[in-house]
Amino acid sequence: SGTRANMFAALLIPLYYLYIINSYRIRIYLFVLAIVFITLTMNFVLTNLLSSSEFSNSVKLGHFYSYIEYFKNNPLFFFFGSGAGSYFYSHGVSDYVLNTELVFLDLIRYIGIINTVLFYIVILYPIRKIYYKSNIIAFSYFIYIIVAMTNPLLISSTGFLAISFAYLFAYSKDKNAPN
């Protein structure tokens, strides 16, 4: 899909790869270039991509405020969740919804904050082992998790496929390693 987060990740991963394959001197130049680019584009990003007047952002803000209201009215749901398949009223779309693009808050609503934190620990656990095998794959997986927090990718077949791949990659033996 062509969401902003996916497009940003599609740019970020090759840039990181260029960064890690180059020498220390070129890394410094790339880092300085990135800082200059971020500084020059920050105003555009803040005014255009994160504007509350932009439709997609206004819907997400409506979802966010609805979640605040939902958890304020149902504090036990914040800790224990209200179950998978539960729905709530969102001002973002002025209707009842099962899920939103705010996956972290969806998970809290489904399974509670404690289980959500445990879920993210399970998701992030293999990153260190993956990093020792391939830091570009570890970085890509981490970026996927960040993107999945803003799009309904994590709690789907795509998300569970990515998590399965991460564990498979982290814990599979290298065929070229000595016994």
Description:
The chain has 179 residues and is mainly alpha-helical. The protein is 71% helix and 3% strand. It has eight helices and two strands; from the N terminus they run ααααββαααα. The protein has a two-stranded antiparallel ribbon with strand order 1-2. Helix 1 packs antiparallel against helix 7 and helix 6 (127-133) runs antiparallel to helix 7. The longest helix is centred in the first third of the chain and has 26 residues, at 24-49. The radius of gyration is 19 Å and the shape is flat. It starts with a helix and ends in an 8-residue tail after the last helix.
Produce a short descriptive summary.
The chain is mainly α and 179 residues long. The chain has helices at residues 4-21, 24-49, 55-73, 75-80, 103-124, 127-133, 135-148, 157-171, and strands at residues 88-90, 95-97. Helix 1 (4-21) packs antiparallel against helix 7 (135-148), helix 6 packs antiparallel against helix 7 and helix 6 (127-133) crosses helix 8.
What can be said about the biggest beta sheet? 2 strands, antiparallel
Mean pLDDT: 84
Taken from the alpha-carbon principal axes, the silhouette is flat
Helix content: over 70%
What portion of residues belong to β-strands? under 5%
Cα-to-Cα separation, first versus last residue: 43 Å
Please report the total strand number as a whole number: 2
Are there runs of 5+ residues with pLDDT below 50, and where? none
Structural class: mainly alpha
Order of helices and strands: HHHHEEHHHH
Radius of gyration over alpha carbons?
A: 19 Å
Number of helices: 8
Lateral arrangement of strands in the main beta sheet: 1-2
